[in-house]
Amino acid sequence: MSNCLTLPGLTCSDCRMSPLCLPLSLHADEIGQLDAIVSRGRPIHKDDYVYHSGNPFHSIFAVRSGAIKTYAVDSDGHEQVTGFHLPGEIFGIDGIGQESHRNTAVALETSSVCEIPFNRLSELSIALPTLQKRLFALMGMEVNENQELITLLSKKSAEERVATLLLNLSARNHARKLSSIAFRLPMSRSDIGNYLGLTLETVSRVFSRFQKTKLLSVDKKEIEILDMEGLRSLISGHDTPPCSEKAG
Amino acid sequence: MSNCLTLPGLTCSDCRMSPLCLPLSLHADEIGQLDAIVSRGRPIHKDDYVYHSGNPFHSIFAVRSGAIKTYAVDSDGHEQVTGFHLPGEIFGIDGIGQESHRNTAVALETSSVCEIPFNRLSELSIALPTLQKRLFALMGMEVNENQELITLLSKKSAEERVATLLLNLSARNHARKLSSIAFRLPMSRSDIGNYLGLTLETVSRVFSRFQKTKLLSVDKKEIEILDMEGLRSLISGHDTPPCSEKAG
DNA sequence: AACAATGTTTGATCTAGGTCAATAAACGGA
DNA sequence: TCCGTTTATTGACCTAGATCAAACATTGTT
Predict the structure, then answer these.
(1) A133 to chain B, closest Cα gap in Å
(2) What is the percent of chain A where pLDDT is above 90?
(3) Per-residue confidence at A147, pLDDT binned at 50, 70, 90?
(4) Taking CB atoms and an 8 Å limit, are B98 and A140 in contact across chains?
(5) B237 falls in which pLDDT band (50, 70, 90)?
(6) Could you identify the residue whose CA is nearest to the C1' atom of nucleotide C20?
(7) Rounded distance, CA A181 to CA A232, Å?
(8) Is the separation of the CB atoms in B108 and B46 below 8 Å?
(9) Taking CA atoms, what residue in A is nearest to B235?
(10) How many CB pairs below 8 A link A and B?
């Protein structure tokens, strides 16, 4: 445990996830400077916390391996899952607007994360405009993703919500050179339901229905997408299209 | 129309909204530098667009007067209202993550907006770390607000949603030294419903119910909050609290 | 192997809010 | 002022998904 820093590959430059992660678009020498402020943590176990809601905000984090769930707790004590974070993805941005985190981050499985002190990162971004641009873009993408989730929660049916999540995970797996058709869900049905604004029973029923209609094969947490196009057509199309052609 | 730049008060330093707006936390000389890149637009009318979804992203905007609605259009053509923006507030952040806007911004009433070219703003933020910090904080707050909306859409009843919006508008009016108990809604029932993930009929029914229970007085778009505490208790409290004291 | 603890599936029933429909009030032009 | 258009209210009915409940796997523990 104390010698894990002697393992190979413990710089951003060596990290397989680098092209997806914060270093995206930085030059080799710039990545070196980033490397200097990133600290790579030891593995954390399932159910270990990275930070809690209310903790002072110091750092953002990158997932190196495993999967991290973030959730917010509102005034009533209701938990709302706000994201699932896969290798190469950044989380912890929920603390930037205030002095403290609004979310809690917990490992869904054995994981490892890199910690990036935000003060040092923003200082560095003054010297490296590319990095500043990357940071703004990263936060902007977070805003856009949240807006997509808002639309989903506000307007979509249970089937559309589940299909959207599966296609989203599929695309993210594809981006990290994993199979886009067969993968393991790192989270429970209850986490999925919470994230999608559904009960776990509804999520389970949708999975069953998708199996019956040969869209998916589901074995516990192992998912295989049998009909990608069918899934895609589910999330866009069965509605009045904004008036285009009509034969006649 | 060509002489509107001769009107008084057309710098950030003079603007009454400055303490709420982007210049917050900047020193006088820093505000001067910001001023140099901000262009103040002529008034825009109700239903005029500030930008459309898909437009290339160049600038963010500040509301000087009036009210702006932003909405996203998803693949199905569904519109999702993503925000109502009041004087002193920034909008347009939806374009930062990509090269183009994801939202459309439209005036709900006669308004005026300041345009701030984002490239020049981020350059300036390299010279002014306070400004950089302010920008990060602004985007972080946007993320947090979106997460609150996500929780609302995912977990709250129609009454809680409407009460939350009213209290939110009340607080924002208070921040700009307007009445927190009596104000005019700049948006339609349908906009409110769209934003809150409800139909306009449900919004109307909730307003009626709130009137009947003496929480509000509603006259078309004029709202008076008659029982602030009653409204507050609606949005937090009627649920199993996460087990604390219990006499006995 | 027996066990609790946890997570998943499936069924039966209920309800909040959606949908459809009919007025009614307010607004904006000529 | 009158008329067409948009916006808001209210009612009757319906449905997607929640809730309640039971059975069943799965995992880890002693």
Answers:
(1) 8
(2) 76
(3) very high
(4) yes
(5) low
(6) B201
(7) 13
(8) yes
(9) A76
(10) 159
Task: Search chain B and give the residue with CA nearest A239.
Answer: B76
B143 touches chain A (CB under 8 A): yes
Tokens representing residue A120 in the block:
């040092």
Per-residue pLDDT of B13-58, as tens digits, reads 888 898 899 988 899 889 988 988 998 877 899 999 999 999 999 9
- Encoded amino acid at A163, one letter: A
- Kind and range of the H or E element at B196? helix B189-196
For position B23, what pLDDT does the model report?
Answer: 87
Encode pLDDT of A104-115 as tens digits. 999 999 999 999
- Which residues does chain A have within 8 Å of residue B97's beta carbon, measured at their own beta carbons? 137-144
For strand C, the positions having any atom within 7 A of a protein Cβ are 7-12, 16-21, 26-27
Name B63's bridge partners: B113
Rounded distance between C-alpha atoms, residue B191 and residue B82, angstroms: 10
Q: How would you classify residue A68: left for phi > 0, otherwise alpha for psi between -120 and 50, otherwise beta? A: beta
Share of chain B above pLDDT 70, in %: 92
Q: Does B63 touch chain A (CB under 8 A)?
A: no
Q: Measured between alpha carbons, how far is B45 from B106 in angstroms, rounded to an integer?
A: 9
Mean pLDDT of A43-68: 94
Residues of A in contact with B193 (CB under 8 A): none
- Chain-centroid distance, C-alpha A52: 18
Q: What is the pLDDT of residues B194-225, one digit of tens each?
A: 999 999 999 999 999 999 999 999 998 999 99
With H, G, I as helix, E, B as strand and everything else as coil, classify residue A81. Answer: strand
**Mutual angle of helices B129-155 and B118-127, in 10-degree steps:** 120
Q: What is the pLDDT of residues A175-230, one digit of tens each?
A: 999 999 999 999 999 999 999 999 999 999 999 999 999 999 999 899 999 999 99
The gap between B208 CA and D9 C1' (Å) is 9
Q: Which residue has the tokens 């270990």?
A: A48
Residue A247 has pLDDT above 50, yes or no: no
Q: Please, are residues A89 and A63 in contact by the beta-carbon 8 Å criterion?
A: yes
Distance between the alpha carbon (CA) of A225 and the C1' atom of D23, Å: 28
Asked if the C-beta of B119 comes within 8 angstroms of chain A's C-beta atoms, the answer is no
Q: For residues B48-61, b (16+ Cβ closer than 10 Å) or e, as one string?
A: eebbebeeebbbbb
What is chain B's mean pLDDT, rounded?
89
Q: How many CB atoms lie within 10 A of CB B14?
A: 10
For the residues of B47-116, what is the DSSP string, one character each? Answer: T-EEE-TTSBP-EEEEEEES-EEEEEE-TT--EEEEEEE-TT-EE-GGGSSSSB-SEEEEESSSBEEEEE
User: Contact A154/B151, CB-based, under 8 Å?
Assistant: no
Q: Which residues of chain B make contact with A82, given a CB cutoff of 8 A?
A: 147, 150
